[in-house]
Design goal:
The chain has 283 residues and is an alpha/beta fold. It has one domain: Rossmann fold, CATH 3.40.50.150. 25% of the residues lie in helices and 23% in strands. The chain has 8 helices and 11 strands. 34% of the residues are buried.
């Protein structure tokens, strides 16, 4: 089965190139709000950040087929001593857009990922009550659903081709609401300047919530992890990314720079660069 992959370079607040009900699954992770390592200075303030999420939720509801899933990897953010309740605010935004709240999974990073930071180190300097600020090794994976899924709508041969490996499911404890996954290390060659989520996150979500031959969307495409895993799992993909400079990185990561033969398939890749000012890309 050959697959097609489409990259749109532009602002994901508009998904005008995508038809209503065209998408079978959304897997995405928005930029961290004003983190110094992730699209620095992209958002003027927190209200603007939430405004972007609202537009993306509305557009995603339009392009997603009924019964299908939106997977949102997101977490609260500490900026200059102020903690922003992003998970709670994002959940309300998606509910207001028409989605149902289906579940929440916690992604636990390895304990060695963080050494004692300035935040938790306050206690070492001041071992008294009220000086406690914990380091965060967790992120949220919030699962929303558009309506209810018709399980009988999937042909038998597609169901069988998409069957979950139960040994993998049980051995890696996918059935739990706590997923232990190694994060992408800072400074990885394909992820510079991007807080990318691991391949494993996209892999689990695509396997659990889509069928072979369906189309996966990532509106905050980043380095192209979702598109890469979608292709490996014989799904089509659509990615939207605002930074034009990431185009060659995405193309390489998804395997379309002389690497198409690796999967022994005639998969195709196209990209669209928007020129309109309102939803144009950035360098």
């Amino acid at each position: 089965m050959n697959t097609h992959h489409r990259l749109i370079i532009g602002n994901c607040m508009s998904m005008k190139e995508i038809s209503d009900d065209e998408i079978n699954l959304v897997v995405t992770s928005p930029p961290y709000f004003n983190a110094p390592f992730d699209y620095e200075g992209l958002f003027k303030n927190y209200d603007q950040y939430l405004g972007v999420l609202k537009r993306v939720a509305i557009e995603s509801f339009r392009v997603l087929q009924n019964g299908r899933i939106f997977v949102l990897n997101i977490d609260d953010m500490l900026i200059n001593g102020e903690k922003f309740p992003i998970v709670a605010d994002a959940t309300r935004i998606f509910l207001d857009a028409g989605f149902r709240y289906r579940d929440r999974i916690i992604w636990k990073k390895p304990e060695g990922y963080l050494r004692i930071s300035r935040r938790s180190g306050v206690m070492l300097q001041n071992p008294y009550p009220m000086y406690f600020y914990p380091d965060n090794l967790l992120e949220s994976i919030i699962i929303f659903q558009k309506g209810k899924f018709d399980y009988k709508s999937i042909p038998k041969e597609i169901r069988e081709a998409s069957k979950i490996n139960l040994k993998e499911f049980q051995d890696n404890k996918w059935f739990m609401t706590l997923w232990d996954m190694v994060n992408v290390l800072p400074g990885s060659p394909m992820e510079k300047g991007i807080a990318a989520f691991p391949d494993e996150l996209a892999y689990r979500c695509i396997k659990l919530f889509s069928y072979v031959g369906e189309t996966i969307l990532d509106p905050f495409c980043g380095s192209g992890t979702t598109m890469k895993i979608a292709r490996e799992l014989k799904r089509n993909s659509v990615g939207i990314e605002i930074k034009k400079s990431l185009l060659p990185i995405i193309e390489t990561k998804v395997g379309f720079t002389g690497q198409t033969g690796l999967l022994n398939r005639d998969d195709t890749f196209e990209h669209i660069i928007r020129e309109d000012e309102k939803y144009a890309c950035i360098s």
